[in-house]
Design a protein that fits this description.
249 residues; alpha/beta; Rossmann fold; six-stranded mixed beta sheet; four-stranded antiparallel beta sheet
Length: 249
């Protein structure tokens, strides 16, 4: 989870990535990759395995540091900021991963509650542990979290633990938590992977609605090219570490 309440972001959020390069040993992951995005919108990133898509998202989110280049949010240079620092400064980023990162000892409902924007000065663990003064806030948070689970077809799984859920269910659970944070930019790595075919359209519609209603940017890596193309307002392709924008009909 990368994000928090907005401090350096405004209603119009700009993310500018300039000439990012990254090598892993002798392998070129990214080679002068550049793009600029404004929220809201849905932005698709496609390409073959190993083309640098996940590395690009990791750099933008502060999980990997580039060899050179810069990442700016509303003209603030955050290139060297760790993911933790970005959260503390309220960067407003949310992230999901190829392999969902969930809390194994917590139920689905509790996992989603981690993303709930409790009032300033209240941490999620204080609220979830049931301290009396947070009771009313926690009750409201649970209602919202249950609604989020329902939207993602997980209403019957609120008491389930991640190990009891399928891979596709865990993917949707992580997305539910991320969206509950109301981030200004969401970076989703293969959100449709493992998701049952009948729910792919439902998830795509949910992401579109979220982008429009929350005025957020939703950035997607996925191999379901037809789905990504259908919902994206802009589409980028990575190949051998380079990035180009594709024309949308």
């Amino acid at each position: 989870m990368i994000g928090g309440s907005s401090r350096i972001v405004s209603n119009l959020v700009q993310v500018r990535v300039s000439r990012i390069c990254k090598h892993f040993g002798g392998v070129v992951a990214l080679d002068n990759a550049s793009f600029e995005l404004f929220a809201p919108g849905i932005f698709g990133f496609v390409g073959e395995n190993g083309s640098g898509k996940t590395t690009l998202f990791d750099i933008v989110c502060g999980l990997v540091r580039p060899d050179s280049g810069s990442v700016l949010v509303n003209k603030h240079d955050i290139t060297t900021w760790s993911a933790t620092r970005r959260g503390k400064f309220g960067l407003g980023f949310g992230r999901s991963f190829q392999h969902p990162r969930l809390f194994a000892s917590m139920t689905a409902l509790e996992n989603v509650l981690v993303g709930y924007p409790f009032s300033k000065g209240t941490s999620w663990d204080e609220a979830i542990l049931g301290r009396v003064k947070y009771g009313e806030q926690l009750s409201s948070a649970r209602d919202v979290a249950r609604q989020q689970l329902d939207l993602l077809g997980l209403g019957d799984n609120e008491r389930s633990y991640p190990a009891e859920m399928s891979f596709g269910q865990r993917k949707r659970l992580e997305i539910a938590r991320v969206l509950l944070e109301q981030p200004r930019f969401v970076w989703l790595d293969e959100p449709f992977s493992g998701v049952e075919q009948g729910l792919v359209t439902r998830l795509a519609e949910l992401l579109t609605h979220f982008s429009e209603s929350a005025s957020s940017g939703v950035c997607i890596i996925d191999h379901r090219m037809e789905v990504v193309r259908d919902i994206s307002t802009r589409l980028f392709q990575l190949h051998n570490g380079k990035i180009v924008e594709l024309a949308q009909s």
